[in-house]
């Protein structure tokens, strides 16, 4: 149920500032752009302000180029705004703009467990697969027209937050919301193309280089790969092109933990670790001065590659064994 005070606020105010968390993901970008269009269709103004710019992947979404980024506020802030709508953000500090944004009345719309309800109006629905779904329901409740571009934004939010309808949040209501978005005009094939079929050639060539280094250890449960500066040069790739490549060895049947060592300089490596389920790679990274989450962590390392990989294999094998005991 959408809280009545939220609808009242959206009907009453006219000039909105929209924001979300740092390093915005597909749900942040899609729900902000979608809501901005919904508000515009109601004759209201909406300016999006994010600390960090979003990935180029989302650039085909309508309004993407108009997103204001950085620490400096947009023109007319704060006087030109009636309220700030904070989307997909469990706590205000995650916006990276808290001290500035909090000068405006805050409207909090989110689906994260543990949301701190920092707004004058709060709508937190932990059952929503994506905030994009909540914005879609909001549009309906406000009597706004959801056009093709708006539907694309909200559908992209839903697709990215459900991992392409592969995660456990791809529930019957999520599929029902998807059906309503597609009925409203969301272009499924086009959004899939934007998200999954626009890789830079250099990233694919770099993947080829990386897969040539694949080794399996500990009865195949541990996979190691590496990327040297020479491989980046051969692929015509830059740092960002290696993002996500580690997911490929992790997808091999039987692999429970993966280490990727990326050469930064002579005997200087950036190590990325990934695992499945209860196998904890965060502790492995932390022991080397790094950090992260249980299934995704990283650290810096110095020294010769072969001994670095040998050490990582031992640590990852131990992490797998301790997860089996638990
Ligand atoms: Mn989300």
Describe the 3D structure.
This protein has 326 residues and is α/β, with parallel strands linked by helices. The chain has two domains: 4-196, inorganic pyrophosphatase (n-terminal core); 201-325, Diaminopimelate Epimerase, Chain A, domain 1 (Roll). Helix content is 38%, strand content 19%. A six-stranded parallel β-sheet has the order 3-2-1-4-5-6, covered by helices on one side. A six-stranded mixed β-sheet has the order 7-8-9-10-12-11, with helices on both faces. The protein starts with a helix and ends with a helix. Bound molecules: manganese (II) ion (MN).
Task: List SSEs in N-to-C order.
Answer: HEHEEEHEEHHHHHEEHHEEHEEH
Intertermini distance: 41 Å
Report the CATH topology name of the largest domain: inorganic pyrophosphatase (n-terminal core)
Name the CATH homologous superfamily of the largest domain. Answer: inorganic pyrophosphatase (n-terminal core)
**What is the level-2 CATH architecture name of the largest domain?**
Alpha-Beta Complex
- Uncertain segments of ≥5 residues (pLDDT<50)? none
Sheet with most strands = 6 strands, parallel
Oligomeric state of this protein: single chain
Give the class-level CATH name of the largest domain.
Answer: Alpha Beta
